[in-house]
Amino acid sequence: MRLFIILLLLTVSVPALCETSINDTGKAVLKLEKQLNKTGLNEKLFKKWTVILSEAKQQAQGCIEEKTQQITKLKQDMESLGEVVKGEPGDVSRKRNELKKEHSDLEKQLSKCRLLLLQSEELLNTVNLEYKKITAARLFARGMTVVDILEKNIDQPAVWFKASREFVVTNSGLSLFSLTNALFFLLFAAAIYWFASSIRKNILTDLQRVTYIKSFSEYFNRALMSTLAHFLPHILISVMASFFAYTVTHKASTIPFVSMLAYGLPVYFILLCVIHVLFAPCKPASHIFKMPKKLMQSLAVNLKVLLTLIFIGYLFFATIIAKSLPENVLLFGREVYAVFFIAGILWLIRLLGGLPRFQHMFWLKFTIHIVLIAILTVELAGFRNLSVQSLRVLFGTSIMLGFLYLTQLLFKDMFYGLKHGTQPWHRSIRKLFGLHGQEHFPGILWLQVIINIGLWFVVGYAVLRIWGLSDTAINEVQHYVIDGFTIGSLRITPSRIIIAVASLALLLSFSGWFKNRLEKKWLPETQIERGAREAIVSISGYTGVILSAIISLGIAGLDFSNLAIIAGALSLGIGFGLQNIVNNFVSGIILLLERPVKTGDWIEVGATEGYVRKIRIRSTQIQTFDRADVIVPNSELISGQVTNWMLRDTRGRIKVPVGVAYGTDTEKVKSLLLALAASHAEVIKDDQSREIQVYFLAFGESSLDFELRCHIVNIDQRVSVISDLNFAIEKAFRENNIEIPFPQRDLHLHNISTKDLKVNDE
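RE: above sequence
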């Protein structure tokens, strides 16, 4: 009957439920409820029934959503037909009746789906409640107390000797190994030790020779390599021992103790290596955490003791020993083990309390001590299931939080290295993306967010499992994460949002890589002029961002049919106050396409004069000759008057005015000016359309006015070339005794008699 119910429920189709399948599923749920009332519930049935009822609930929810959408569509179709009109065509009446009948059928199916949802939820709650009772009964089940165990072991003193002798003779597995096997093992172990020692020597030599920078990841990498090299012989020999034990004892009916010991040794040495990496790295490495050296060594000793205790517990309780020893002996060993293990954890808490971060957390340390003592008390009082579960929760949560802290430190250091190129492999990745100097790594912020969210999600899921969250709750969480939930009329699907954010990060990173490769490698190899290349790079960058956003929003489930509403809202906003922003945006597109101004051009915009450094979609950055950056809206470059000294090419004309004294040989002045201009490297001399010219402009008040006009190769050097020519002209005129006059004014004073002054006064 139970198998029939399971098969019947699993054959129900999730995407679309017909009326027959809904009826069958409802009947199966009712039969499951009767079965629960008759036979009760145990942990094995709980998992099966939880899966079945969760699937039934999800099927009912899918059915409700599907039928609701169909009913909404039918209502729209019925409304489109309008009200009933007397004498309307027969086709309209027939269609109206068909829609009404279909609407009635859908309402019936929707009612059945809602009934199925209600039944499955009620039964699921009942199953969960029964399971909680079973779990509580198991956790609070009481066995013999420590006093009872001691009394029984004292009454039977010979049981220890008898159990030990029987274990060694029959269950240890030593009899399965021959002398030949032992010799082969020793021979292979010696060879592996020699091989691993040579590798260890090479690794340590390389670590001593290579210099490293001071960063967490570099300290961690160095500690990992040196410690792994130190423990390499132990790990390899233990792995070989595990393989050797398996080949000899794999045909045995039960796994002997020797094999279990060999299987556990590789894990023991690997965890021992981890402890040394974190708290006591082997030389030449140094500590990776900034803590007192003495405290780190004490933590390493404590953790090694705890690891050894865990390994002993594995050998004592998870192997054939637990099945070989009498119950009294096994329980006595468990109580002694619990005392030592809790004492080791209390020692660890005391050491951690010495850290600066925890020195002032008195209540936290006090609470943990109380909890550990309570766990030990519960164990000695006979509530062993409760003590194991509590210790598992405390220990497992601490390990996961430590894992989260360590991985976040490693990723933080990795992202810092990718931003600044601290390591060679960081620089290689930056070079792959076409980044130089301190250029920003595209999409790295989104990658940090995604990785942090992923870490918290993994650790949170593991902690919930450690705390014993039921499969029903896990399935509910998975359902909400994967299938989403509804708030009002809004459907939110967390899994799609997470995938959309990850896609956005990857697409932005790819867009940045493509833009950098386009700018730094691909376009410079073409014959396209600089301005066109920059326009292509800018447009490709904005296009990449827009496409990344559109694709990510599509993955997130955004309905693009609602874009008309968004566009209407934007139009309203533009009408009320965004005209300037839109104007600058459109002007930026015109600048990128028409290119009247390019990066590197020397331009004049109103009172601003300087070089164009960056053309963005809203504004243009101009750097003046005083090294000040002026942000000019793009609309001013399009609608206003702009002087571009370098629009077509970099060549331009300069004018150098010169005045000489009256009586100077003008032909000599002309020849000197022509010669000085021709001798300058920046002046164009071999182009007939750009000849050097000297003009005698006017007879001034104090001088004969000349003007030297010439074209230079790079108009950027205009001020520098004029300065050079002025220096050369002054020197040449001084050597040729040509005077450069300055304006003179004559002041004439007339004698005025005292008599005239008196007349004027009167």
